[in-house]
Amino acid sequence: MAGKTVVIGNGQGFWGDSARGPVQLVRGGGIDYLTMDFLAEVTMSIMQKLRSRNPDAGYASDFVAQLERILPECVEHGIKIVANAGGVNPEACARAVDEVVRKLGLRVSVATVGGDDLMGRLPQLLEAGHALDNMNTGAALSPELGRVQSANVYLGAFPIAEALAAGADIVITGRVTDPSLVLAPLIHEFGWSETDYDLLAAGTVAGHVLECGTQSTGGNYDRWETVPDLAGIGYPIAEVSQDGTFVVTKKKGTGGLVDVGTVTAQLLYELGDPQRYLTPDVIADFTSIGLEQAGADRVRVSGVVGSAPTDTYKVSISTLDGWRTTAQLTVGGPDAPAKARLTAEILLARLAEDGVAFPAEDCRVEVIGTNVLYDQMLPERTEAPSEVVLRISVRSTDKAAVNRLGAEMASLLTSGPPGLTGFAGGRPKASEIVGFWPALIEKSAVSAEVRVSEDVA
User: Fold this and answer.
1) What are the C-alpha distances in Å from 206 to residues 201, 262, 266?
2) What pLDDT is stored for residue 424 in this prediction?
3) Is pLDDT at 214 greater than 90 in this prediction?
4) DSSP string for 155-169
5) Pick from 446, 364, 347: which is nearest to 404 by CA?
6) What pLDDT does 379 receive?
């Protein structure tokens, strides 16, 4: 790859990923951009609920804590940060980041990208004729409006690139597509246009490879025994050139593995039609991707082909679909699996006697240790284990009924078979079931909002 190269490292694959990723990537410099991906469908619902209780909440607070640790080194090495940590409240997240910047005495410009949150606009959008039908079932949203917990459009990369062009050192977004965090710096640095479809597709593929953190450097890899030093696994880096070709790698001295196998495994992650990987900016053809081992822990990616995007955005809507809980006990001694199954029968019978019954489709009994995970895929055990875990999961629209499961289970310790233990954690409580409602909306109905602050000092 000749000419200018932009180096991007992704230090966060999801909300809850290790805090060591961003530290590892910025230490000593060597990258131009640090991206951090926090959001998933259920995350948006959680954040919306937090914001409903506190108008200053609704974002990934972990991000703010991480910035306090890494920001001085980012400023020293000129590393810009792009993160979707804003959740449903990017402005509040930016205010919290500003406080960290002032505390550290740094000069940093912080930008936000919003406009994705449709929660407050849903009645007006439906009245205006935007049906927001469920893409999977065809059901209309209007009758379900009271169950909606969050509604967010997947925005693309160009609003982020706009913020970078305006001088932002940190860009905080709400819901954007995961690859947009990587594609946006490339649009900004290389001046790619909205019709440079092959280049946009290449940047999208780079973002897809990086988006799940260490899944492209040997994490969650089926050939795990070939991956050296998983404890010290390195977070992924893409070295991207103007023509869209790029090398996937990691920092020297870190563990893990980057080869054609690890990159291929990540490319197949959450992939539908490989010829039509849809984003707001481009449709990428994953069958056009060329992979080549270009040295130790270096894979060159080339040949990516793209085409014009659709005229709609995808909308991720979450709904309240009832309540669920899981209760479990450890069962030990001779005939442990049989005792566990009897324990489940006793518990469900007592609940039914008290007027709490769960249909078969709403109740799952598992005896862990008897090939539950790979039932009918791996051979059954011929010898009964002497200890198993009984796990019973139920769901219902009746919260009180769900809570009765945990309340009744404790009684089995003295009124069930012998050898029961492991209930020290207390009664399991009902938690909300978050349903996923995917929909489409015309791009003309959505406007991204980009705000860039002056340097904070």
Assistant:
1) 9, 14, 11
2) 67
3) yes
4) B-SHHHHHHHHTT-S
5) 347
6) 82
Three-state SS sequence of 311-368: CEEEEEEEEEEEEEEEEEEEEECCCHHHHHHHHHHHHHHHHHHCCCCCCHHHEEEEEE
Q: Please tell me the predicted confidence (pLDDT) of residue 41.
A: 79
**Alpha-carbon distances, residue 272 vs 38, 267, 268, 436 (angstroms):** 22, 11, 9, 17
Calpha distance 346→34 (Å, rounded): 54
pLDDT tens, position by position, 324-334: 999 999 999 99
CA 391 to mean position of chain CA atoms: 26
Residue 132 φ/ψ region, left for φ over 0, alpha for ψ in the -120 to 50 degree band, beta for the rest: left
Q: What is the mean pLDDT of the chain?
A: 94
Burial class (CB in 10 A: 0-12, 13-18, 19+), 242: middle
Residue 235: phi and psi, rounded to 5, are -85, 150
Model confidence at 115: pLDDT above 50? yes
Assigned token pair, 232: 């010290």
Q: Tell me whether residue 8 is exposed, middle or buried, using C-beta atoms within 10 angstroms of its C-beta: 0 to 12, 13 to 18, 19 or more.
A: buried
Reference 395, options 420, 370, 351, 430; nearest CA is 430
Residue 269 in this model has a pLDDT that exceeds 70: yes
SS3 category, 175: coil
pTM assigned to the model: 0.92
Q: What is the rounded CA–CA span in Å between residue 250 and residue 217?
A: 8
Count of alpha carbons within 13 angstroms of residue 379, beta-carbon side: 3
Percentage of the chain lying above the pLDDT 90 cut: 88
Per-residue DSSP letter, 117: B
Residue 457 — very low, low, confident or very high, per pLDDT cuts 50/70/90? Answer: low
Question: Higher pLDDT residue, 2 or 178?
Answer: 178
Residues 6+ apart with CB under 8 A from 20: none
Q: 3-state SS of the chain: helix, strand, coil percent to 5?
A: 35, 25, 40
SS3 444: helix
Residue 411 to residue 343: CA distance in whole angstroms: 11
Q: Is the pLDDT of residue 42 over 90?
A: no
